[in-house]
Amino acid sequence: MKKLFHTLFPIAWFIVLVSGLLAASATGQATSQAAPNVSIDTIRDITSQTSSLDPKVLQLALLAYEHARLQGLDKQQILTIINYQQPSIDKRLWVINLNDDKVLYNTYVAHGKNSGDNYADEFSNSPKSQESSIGVYVTGNTYYGNDGYSLHLIGLDSGFNSNAYSRSIVMHGAWYVSQSFIDQYGRLGRSWGCPAIDKTIEPQVVNTIKNGTVIFAYYPEKNWLDNSKYLKPINV
User: Fold this and answer.
1) 113, 124, 163, 207: which has the highest count of C-beta atoms within 10 A?
2) Domain total for the chain?
3) Residue 91, domain CATH
4) Nearest residue to 36 via CA among 12, 64, 11
C-alpha cells in the first residue's frame, strides 16, 4: 500500500481539499474534522479508476481503515467501501486493494427494507429492525446458509453496528440485486439489513474480502460522524 500519510500536503492542494470538505460539511456531506493527511496520490489513483467514488468518502474510509490497522486488524490490506448516500441503482460498493491502490470490484449492493426505497435514510443497530447499519466492520469467516454462500460481518462501531453479528447481518448474494431488477423496478430489491450483492459476482467478492478485512459503510449521519472512534484524528 502506498503510504497513507504525508507530513504535509502541497499548500495548494491543502487549501483546495480543506475548502471542499468544509463546504461538504455545511451540506451534510463527509466532514473534514476527522480527515488525516491522506496521500493525494492514493486518492487520485483510486478515484481515477472509478468516477462514482466520492473522494471525501474515500478519505474518511482511509482514516477508519488506518484506525483498524492500528488495532492490528486486516493484514491483507483490502478495504471495502459502501456509500449508502447513493441510490441503490448506483454501483455503490467498492473493493480496493491498498497494496497497489487498485479497485478490484465496483458493484451493486442492497440496503435493508426498512432503511428506505431507492435511497436509504434510516439506519439501526437494533435486532429485528430490518434496517442497514453504518460504520466500520471487519469480515469473519464464510458459511452456507439460507442465502447460500455467505460472509459473517462483525460490527466495530459501538452503538452503530455493534449488534451486526447477533443480528445475522452478513454479506450474501441475492436475486434482487442485478441490472435486470433495476430495469424492471427502478431500484434494487431490499434485504433484512444485510449488504446483499449480485449473485453472479458474490463468491468472488466474498473470497477476496473474507477473514479479517475492513468494510466502511458510509452515510452522512451526524451522530456517527461526530462520535465514531474510527473517525477521530490520528496524530502522526
Assistant:
1) 124
2) 1
3) 2.40.440.10
4) 64
Instruction: Using alpha carbons, select from 149, 141, 140, 146 the residue that is nearest to residue 204.
Output: 149
Kindly report the backbone phi and psi dihedral angles of residue 169, in degrees, each rounded to the nearest multiple of 5, phi listed first. Answer: -80, 110
Burial of residue 200 (number of CB atoms within 10 Å: 0-12, 13-18, 19+):
exposed
Whether the Cβ atoms of residue 136 and residue 216 lie closer than 8 Å to each other: yes
Q: What is the pLDDT of residues 158-202, one digit of tens each?
A: 999 999 999 999 999 999 999 999 999 999 999 999 999 999 999
Q: Identify whether 98 is part of a domain.
A: yes
Task: Give me the residues paired with residue 142 across strands.
Answer: 151
- DSSP-assigned letter for residue 5: B
Domain of 91 in residue numbering reads as 74-230
pTM: 0.85
Residue 9 located in a structural domain: no
